[in-house]
C-alpha cells in the first residue's frame, strides 16, 4: 500500500497480491485505520450505498511511510491536512464534513472534494508543479457551482485565476484551513 498511495484500491487486487482473501484484506485495512496508520478517501456520490461500492484511495497519516516520488508524498501530505481540517470542523463547529474524491468512468478525477452533508464545498486538485487546470476540473467547477474550485501547487511561479478555478500556492492555501 505504501506504493499505491493516491490510487484507487481494489480489495480483490490487494488480496491477490498478498495471497489472502478479500475479506482478510478488508479486515487488515480496517485494523490499519483503527491504529491511525492509514485513512480512506472515498468517491463522492449523493447515494451513500453507491459511494461504498466504489474503490477508495488510501493515504497514510504519517507521510514518512509513503513510498513514491515527491508528487505522491506531497498529495499524501495535503490529504492528511484536509482530513485534519474536516475533523476540526466536525468537532469544533458541529458540521457534518467529510473528505472525498471524484472519479468518472473515463478515469478523470479530482483529488479531494470536501462535502458538508450532501453539498460539495470545494473541488481541490493537487499538483507539485503543474499550474494548468484540467478540462475535467473546469467541467466539474461549472457543474458543482457554487463549490469553490482550486488547484493548489507546491512549486508555483505565479498565482492565477482560470475562470472559476483559482491556482495558488499550496502553503498559503493550506495555512488558511481551520486547525
Description:
By secondary structure, this protein is an alpha/beta fold. The chain has six helices and nine strands; from the N terminus they run ααβαβαββββαβββα. It has one domain. The strands form two sheets. It has a five-stranded mixed β-sheet, sandwiched between helices. Helix 1 crosses helix 2. The protein is globular and about 50 Å long.
Helices and strands, with pairings:
Elements: H1 11-18, H2 22-34, E1 38-43, H3 48-53, E2 57-60, H4 70-93, E3 97-103, E4 109-116, E5 119-120, E6 122-127, H5 135-143, E7 148-153, E8 160-162, E9 165-169, H6 170-175
Parallel strand pairs: 1-3, 6-7, 7-9
Antiparallel strand pairs: 1-2, 3-4, 4-5, 8-9
What ranges have pLDDT less than 50 throughout 5 or more consecutive residues?
47-53
For the record, the count of structural domains works out to 1
**Average pLDDT reading:** 92
What is the β-strand count? Answer: 9
SSE pattern: HHEHEHEEEEHEEEH
| Envelope shape | globular
Through-space gap between termini: 28 Å
In a few lines, what is going on in this structure?
This protein has 179 residues and is an alpha/beta fold. It has helices at residues 11-18, 22-34, 48-53, 70-93, 135-143, 170-175; strands at 38-43, 57-60, 97-103, 109-116, 119-120, 122-127, 148-153, 160-162, 165-169.
